[in-house]
Amino acid sequence: MKFRTIFTCQKCGFNSPKWLGQCPDCGAWNSLAEEVIAQEGKKTKSTKSFTDFSSPITPLKEASLKDYERIATNIPELDKLLGGGLVKGQLVLLAGAPGIGKSTLMMQTAAKLAKTQKVLYVSGEESVEQIALRARRLNCSSDNIFLVSQTNVQEIIEAVKEVKPQVLIVDSVQTIYHPEFSSTSGSLSQVRESAGEILRLTKPLGIITFLLGHITKEGSLAGPKVLEHMVDSVLYFETEKDNVLRLLRAHKNRFGSTEEIALFKMGQEGLEEVADASLYFASTSRTKDIAGRALSVALEGSRPILSEVQALVSPTHFPYPRRITTGLDLNRTQILLAALERHVGLNLDTKDVCVSLGGGIKINDSGLDMALCAAVISSLRDKPLSALSIFIGEMGILGQSAPVSHLDKRIAEARRLGFKKIYTPPVKDKNIKKGPDIIEIEDLISLAGKI
Q1: What is the CA radius of gyration of the chain?
Q2: Where residue 310 sits, what CATH number does that domain have?
Q3: What is the pTM of this model?
Q4: Half-sphere exposure of 37 (CA within 13 A, CB side)
Q5: How far is it, in rounded angstroms, from Cα 254 to Cα 258?
Q6: Burial level of 424, CB count in 10 A (0-12/13-18/19+)?
Q7: pLDDT of amino acid 240
Q8: Structural domain tally of the chain?
């Protein structure tokens, strides 16, 4: 068999016969790595399709529907994120920055699943003793969990055939390698082919498989990205590792919605569920009246979350005033600041404006617009906003308020948390019970008049 050398971009998979400083496909610099492949690629095992599933041609109306039996992880937050639990043969990619808590979550999940399922935990980063120490720290113990420290994908396949588990966990996909390829572990071809071998084994056998993958803060590592089209579900940790709160989001889910999120907080005994996110934020942020702080209710999937928008407006010492955001969209913030200048007459051209979303999470929800505008006005005028007031609504570029989705659910959450004044756009939904706590805001001018 003859071999040849190519250079593969580790970000997008572009192949070049020679090394290039910049990838012509994705524009990334210094991303091309040398790899050796077989010239007779079509006859080798490495170029097999990722899924060797075949079936006869069948008309759609004659295809029988199969009801998938859900297997609960007994971690309610994770089950809700997955759409009610796991499905036999499901392949899940769990990705996040190193140290964010992926291995911790998987060990806790393995302990829960081991009550009814046989689990094989494969680690390419830790020895068996180290895995056992982490399991002891997390109070995870079961006779149904089997450990193996291995990086050779063929040896991993042999271990699966020997143990015959119902659940397989591979930690992490960047550490395993296929011996038929000379490229280093973690390269695009190694990750792709190794994961393909595991997929071809576990799918027909109905083995639930978790693949753990490391990504940078920008999500630029090629490994997890190239796997997204192969797996059934893609779960991403989206918070910084130094934050106590962990947010897990589904970016892809063939067996459920991608609108749900799961919230965890890191404790001494591992990840703890945050079942009531609003009460979590309410207990840490609603203390007293503060200038530049406005509260709102954001909606993530079907879950209302109490959110705290903080704004700081101060004189600038630069030729151009700065606009800085954390947790909120910068472009959306700049549009709202321009609307405040135009319609309310705020003088912001000599002011730096810093806007942050409390709690260390990122939310893209237009329902926070009114709270952002109220926080900016409050900070500029140095007038504290009541801790018992909440602002829910979208503000347009022309200064008019607009209703947001599931306003009834947001108002119900605000009332549950005990807010006395709820500022909203004009309420037209007959299902929303109006009361003295509802204060309708038509535009930015009327909002500024209430502060």
Answers
A1: 26
A2: 3.30.230.10
A3: 0.76
A4: 22
A5: 9
A6: buried
A7: 54
A8: 3
